């Protein structure tokens, strides 16, 4: 490699590193403005980052549109930014996008889309998405009704919530899991527990 090419590559690396630092600083500024209650400034700072493809900025901007913080409340805009972050694999964006489809906010209600996005978030270990997905199986929304799979996802979510010390979330999930158990036979519960162990062993993929 000649010296001039090395110099070009070095400049590129330095510019990339500098650009990454600028983005990080801008995100920090946007988050600080949000925490201070200056939502208009926060939205203004998040927007260019979101437009450049930063997933954290996209989901934050989506939440601001959902709540009407610093911008006019607009569910369609919330869906737009959630979707962009969700397609990049952001579990929280996938969870929120599923919620929008579940409630029919900014998009037509579509249970299959709900299941699609919540499953993707559940596969990343998001406990809220896991027990919410269980609810879809319990009621047969977007998937065939299946109490065994409903219990399985609720059981997995309870373990994760406990591990992360989410006390209030853990109790809510346990209560939900116990409510499903009342509709099941002892054999079904044993099967669900076995499936939960297998699913955890597969890191929640293909469950």
What does this entry look like structurally?
- With about 210 residues, the protein is mainly alpha-helical.
- The chain has helices at about 5-35, 40-50, 55-65, 75-85, 90-105, 110-120, 125-140, 145-165, 165-180, 185-200.
- Helix 6 (about 110-120) runs antiparallel to helix 7 (about 125-140).
Named CATH topology of the largest domain: Serine Threonine Protein Phosphatase 5, Tetratricopeptide repeat
Characterize the main sheet.
none
Beta strand count = 0
Helices and strands, in order, run as HHHHHHHHHH
- Identify the CATH architecture of the largest domain: Alpha Horseshoe
Q: How many distinct folded domains?
A: 2
Fourth-level CATH superfamily of the largest domain: Tetratricopeptide repeat domain
Number of helices: 10
Mean pLDDT value: 88
**CA-based gyration radius:** 21 Å
Give the N-terminus to C-terminus distance in angstroms.
49 Å
User: Residue ranges: pLDDT <50 for 5 or more in a row?
Assistant: 1-22
In the CATH hierarchy, what is the class of the largest domain? Mainly Alpha
SS strand fraction: under 5%
Keyword list:
207 residues; mainly alpha; Serine Threonine Protein Phosphatase 5, Tetratricopeptide repeat; 2 domains; 10 helices; 0% strand
